[in-house]
Amino acid sequence: MSVAMRRKALIIISSAHDLRIAEPAHVGSISTGFFLVELAEILRTFGDEYDFTFATPDGRAPQLDINGIALAMHAGSAFGLTIGLTMIEQAGRKPDIQGLRRRHRGLAERREREVRLLEQHLGGIPVSRILPNTEPELVEYREELVERLSNLPAIPFASLETIVQRHRDRSDAFNLAEFDFVHVPGGHAPMADLTSDAWLGETLHVVRENGGVISLICHGPVALASTWWRVDEDGEPYRLVENAFTAAKVTVADKRSELIAFTVSYPHVPGERSRPTSYADEILRDAGFSLAGTINPTSARAVYDSELRVLTGNGPQAIDVQTSRLSQALVGIRQGLPASR
Question: What gap in Å lies between CA 262 and CA 283, rounded to an integer?
Answer without folding.
Answer: 18
